[in-house]
């Protein structure tokens, strides 16, 4: 089709519009105003990357069986580009992006986040395997236990 779409029943207010499609950079429009009784038109063009690569991998949560919804943030070390994707039930994720050097972070509310540096090459796939994300409380208990072991009471 021609890529046109419409969304009906949107309440008046300010909105952010995000357009994404595999092989294209995500475009984000920060502020669109919807006014009652009027049509708001957004004209954005997604331009295909001349060269692309893929970041894929897996992240898991301590003491959980469903790993869906872990936030994966892929932030360029060279430009202002950043990408986000959520893991599926098995903790798997994949995102098509421009080649370059990136910091890939796995984060989930109440858990300690983890980051890894990667380099994505043209037409290549970088696989990121995170260690199991642990509860923030468990990480804090581990730190206190380690400190106590190093400094026993006299």
Characterization of this structure:
This protein is mainly beta and 154 residues long. The protein is 10% helix and 38% strand. It has a 4-stranded antiparallel beta sheet, with no helix packed on it. A 3-stranded mixed beta sheet has the order 6-3-9, with no helix packed on it. The longest helix has 15 residues, at 136-150. The N and C termini lie far apart (76 Å). The model has no long low-confidence stretch (mean pLDDT 84).
Number of helices: 1
Strand order of the largest sheet: 5-4-7-8
Helix content: under 10%
SS-derived structural category: mainly beta
Question: What integer value in Å does the Rg equal?
Answer: 21 Å
Could you write a compact summary of the structure shown?
By secondary structure, the chain is mainly beta.
Features of the shown structure:
154 residues; mainly beta; four-stranded antiparallel beta sheet; three-stranded mixed beta sheet; 1 helix; globular
Helix and strand arrangement:
Blueprint: E1 13-19, E2 27-34, E3 53-58, E4 71-76, E5 82-86, E6 92-97, E7 100-107, E8 114-120, E9 125-129, H1 136-150
Parallel strand pairs: 3-9
Antiparallel strand pairs: 1-2, 3-6, 4-5, 4-7, 7-8
């Amino acid at each position: 089709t021609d890529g046109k779409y419409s969304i009906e029943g949107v309440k008046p207010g300010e909105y952010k519009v995000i357009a994404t499609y595999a092989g294209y950079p995500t475009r984000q429009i920060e502020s669109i105003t919807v006014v009652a009784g009027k049509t708001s038109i957004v004209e954005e063009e997604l331009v295909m990357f001349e060269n692309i690569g893929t970041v894929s991998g897996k992240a898991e949560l301590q003491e959980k069986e469903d790993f869906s919804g872990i936030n994966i943030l892929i932030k360029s070390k060279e430009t202002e580009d950043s990408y986000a994707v959520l893991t599926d039930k098995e903790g798997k994720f994949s995102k098509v992006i421009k080649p370059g050097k990136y910091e890939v972070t796995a984060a989930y509310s109440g858990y300690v986040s983890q980051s890894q540096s990667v380099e994505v090459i043209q037409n290549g796939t970088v696989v990121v395997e995170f260690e199991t994300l642990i509860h923030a409380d468990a990480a804090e208990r581990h730190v206190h236990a380690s400190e106590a072991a190093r400094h026993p009471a006299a």
